[in-house]
Amino acid sequence: xxxxxxxxxxxxxxxxxxxxxxxxxxxxxxxxxxxxxxxxxxxxxxxxxxxxxxxxxxxxxxxxxxxxxxxxxxxxxxxxxxxxx
Amino acid sequence: xxxxxxxxxxxxxxxxxxxxxxxxxxxxxxxxxxxxxxxxxxxxxxxxxxxxxxxxxxxxxxxxxxxxxxxxxxxxxxxxxxxxxxxxxxxxxxxxxxxxxxxxxxxxxxxxxxxxxxxxxxxxxxxxxxxxxxxxxxxxxxxxxxxxxxxxxxxxxxxxxxxxxxxxxxxxxxxxxxxxxxxxxxxxxxxxxxxxxxxxxxxxxxxxxxxxxxxxxxxxxxxxxxxxxxxxxxxxxxxxxxxxxxxxxxxxxxxxxxxxxxxxxxxxxxxxxxxxxxxxxxxxxxxxxxxxxxxxxxxxxxxxxxxxxxxxxxxxxxxxxxxxxxxxxxxxxxxxxxxxxxxxxxxxxxxxxxxxxxxxxxxxxxxxxxxxxxxxxxxxxxxxxxxxxxxxxxxxxxxxxxxxxxx
Lengths: 85, 407
Prior knowledge:
The structure holds two protein chains of two kinds. By secondary structure, chain A is mainly beta. Chain A is built from one helix and six strands, in the order αββββββ. The relative contact order of chain A is 0.21. Chain B starts with a helix and ends in a 20-residue tail after the last strand. The interface of A and B includes residues 40, 41, 63 and 72 of A.
């Protein structure tokens, strides 16, 4: 029962609050929904602006497989993800 | 896969972006709803792909972002069509292909029949053809349910039938009508009589009173087991007499053949005719004929059958073998062999219910015709039932068993 109460307090849908939604497929693919633009793009680093923070994806051979207005998919060998608030 | 097909149909370009802030270009295009994919870093800039229609409107955006664009490759259907705009034949070919696919899909390509056991495929195919379903039938004119109903009316041996048309493939499922088991009549009063002349070897009467004994000779039609049972008080009771009466009988069969036979024999001349078959329509393209007025024809149909579905196009090869009439004289040994084979066939098919005890052969030669007379001595069941008549003309007199002297 206590667990249920905790679950109720947690927002069901974080993107509704403006937070980005990040989906990882192992360390080979990162899907970021809610991006506001790419700040830096190199095979080693991709920095993405979201509303509240800057998301930095580090790795090797990083490519942008697909980029649209509010989402992007990063392919490559991801070694680290940083959040700068 | 679907996405790649969509990109191919819409057409896309691969281009290089060079400039000081290529990331700015990414953001501007994203902001304007231009979708990029396969973005790869190349030196200071990057290369990416976008739809052909989007590329026309990003030139101003590129200027705004301070980058220069250079098209590396154009791919997709629009580019392909543009590059082959002078090749009219290709366009005609593509159109012809589409029309052919569209037109041929309106006809039945293959008919598959399943579920038949006693009914032959040829018979069912003929019934279906009479009702409009055949290879090459116009599909929109077919009503599968009506067709199944009409075929079932035409042939009462078909108990249930379904016609399923999937694309250009028609599958016909059949259930043959089950015959009700034959019910033996055991209530009608009847006698058991002899079906042939013979000598009784044994009699097993299940019902009725036996009128003959083992060892007695009987003639055809003689009463063997009576269906009228007289009680001790003199009253008569009619029953359905049934019995198994084994008797030794004699049968005679004659087989004859002339001493000279005329046979059709191959001359060695063979002709081959070929024709193309398209949707049941035959178009001959190779003729060959034989000189003889008599010929034997053998047809073979070669059609591609991918995934066990026979396509409606193929080649029919007809081999025509010329025959000629040849007269051959038969000597006695070959006549004996020929007629013996005929007698064996007679024995196998006609005397299948009898046990043949012995055979007597007699070969006669009369005016160029050989005749083999065979006398078979058989053991067989000669009982046959005959209903007891109730009209005034019926002979109800009891058959008197032959006395010892009469035997």
